[in-house]
């Protein structure tokens, strides 16, 4: 929804009279490492899966997702001194076909919550690159401040629908009088001053946009709606939002999200395809095995296409 600006501290190292921005380099390196870690985790969670669970324990289901994807997860269980969390013994019954592991995770945590607490569970990305899963009341403990520039959303283009009329005959009469240039009555008729037209102040437009956000995005979490997880304030063309990651995700998305997965090509008996259905940045080759591949070799003498070209 927005483009965010995140303020980062800058440390300057002084060497003699020359200020070296070594802290900037370190901050940029740390940011790249954090983004890469998040991208790697989400890439693993985009792995396709088809599975059916029949009253399986929630702990076993979550363990299956972790083993399938290899993604780092911080699961907030109801154990120890925690007053809220996921119950390991909750039975999960669900069946999915050819969906991402991330979508499976969302469906599972939705099943794990009571009907009276719709939307109470969620997931978000931690600064360390792992996925935090659990009740939003626990996720709300991890908040950050981001600044969203909304000037483009507040821009109001005037509607000039009252163009003046041009009296050509009056212009010709004035020019034919032989009086030469100088003063005279303006040839434009019905001139009206539109500067007094009522315009909605920017602050009011910003307030309307703020109301839309707090009504459509996690209604129960905003301080303005009685919650205690997220706050939003307008200041000089920007929204300053203090909220957990799952709220920021719905406002600005993830700029580091992996590229669109290529759609799986449907196999034909006379073609051969290599299908990439997810990110394979971390894949390793375990070996090669012989496998029969059907194909068609075109005929026709000199018009024979190159090998592997198909029919």
Structure, described:
- The chain has 311 residues and is an alpha+beta fold.
- The chain has a domain at 1-153 and 201-261: DotD protein (Phage tail protein beta-alpha-beta fold), CATH 3.55.50.
- 28% of the residues lie in helices and 21% in strands.
- It is built from eight helices and 13 strands.
- The protein has helices at residues 22-45, 58-69, 101-111, 136-139, 151-154, 168-175, 202-216, 245-252, and strands at residues 3-5, 13-15, 18-20, 48-57, 73-75, 91-100, 121-125, 131-135, 143-149, 165-166, 188-189, 231-235, 238-244.
- The strands form five sheets. A four-stranded antiparallel beta sheet has the order 1-9-13-12. Strands 5-8-7 form a three-stranded mixed beta sheet.
- A hairpin with a 2-residue loop joins β2 and β3.
- α2 (58-69) packs antiparallel against α3 (101-111).
Helical percentage: 25-40%
The number of helical runs is 8
Please tell me what the overall shape is.
elongated
Average pLDDT for all residues: 77
Main beta sheet strand tally, sense and closure = 4 strands, antiparallel
Rg, rounded, reads: 31 Å
Q: Please give the CATH architecture of one domain.
A: 3-Layer(bab) Sandwich
**Order of strands across the biggest sheet?**
1-9-13-12
Instruction: Name the CATH superfamily classification of one domain.
Output: DotD protein
Low-confidence stretches: 6-18, 262-280
Relative strand content: 15-25%
Number of strands: 13
CATH class of one domain: Alpha Beta
How would you classify the helix and strand content by structural class?
alpha+beta
* Through-space gap between termini: 47 Å
CATH fold naming of one domain: Phage tail protein beta-alpha-beta fold
Run of helices and strands: EEEHEHEEHEEHEHEHEHEEH
């Amino acid at each position: 929804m927005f483009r965010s600006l995140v303020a980062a501290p800058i440390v300057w190292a002084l060497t003699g009279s020359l200020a070296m921005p070594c802290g900037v380099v370190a901050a940029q390196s740390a940011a790249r490492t954090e983004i890469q870690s998040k991208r790697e985790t989400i890439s693993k969670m985009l792995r396709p899966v088809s599975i059916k669970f029949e009253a399986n324990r929630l702990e076993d289901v979550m363990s299956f997702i972790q083993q399938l994807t290899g993604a780092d997860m911080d699961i907030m269980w109801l154990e120890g001194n925690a007053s809220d969390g996921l119950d390991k013994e909750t039975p999960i019954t669900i069946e999915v076909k050819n969906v991402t592991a991330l979508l499976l995770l969302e469906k599972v945590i939705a099943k794990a919550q009571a009907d009276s607490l719709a939307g109470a569970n969620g997931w978000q990305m931690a600064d360390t690159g792992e996925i935090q899963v659990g009740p939003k009341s626990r996720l709300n403990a991890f908040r950050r401040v981001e600044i969203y520039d909304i000037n483009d959303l507040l821009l109001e283009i005037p509607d000039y629908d009252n163009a003046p009329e041009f009296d050509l005959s009056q212009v010709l009469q004035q020019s034919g009088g032989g009086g030469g240039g100088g003063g005279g009555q303006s040839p434009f008729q019905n001139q009206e001053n539109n500067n007094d037209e009522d315009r909605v102040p920017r602050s009011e437009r910003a307030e309307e946009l703020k109301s839309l956000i707090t009504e459509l995005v996690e209604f129960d979490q905003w301080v303005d709606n009685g919650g205690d997880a997220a706050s939003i304030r307008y200041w000089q063309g920007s929204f300053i939002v203090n909220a957990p990651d799952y709220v920021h995700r719905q406002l600005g998305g993830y700029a580091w999200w992996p590229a669109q997965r290529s759609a799986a090509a449907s196999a034909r008996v006379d073609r051969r395809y290599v299908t990439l259905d997810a990110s394979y940045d971390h894949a390793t080759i375990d070996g090669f095995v012989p496998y029969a591949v059907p194909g068609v070799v075109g005929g026709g003498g000199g018009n024979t296409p190159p090998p592997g070209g198909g029919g």
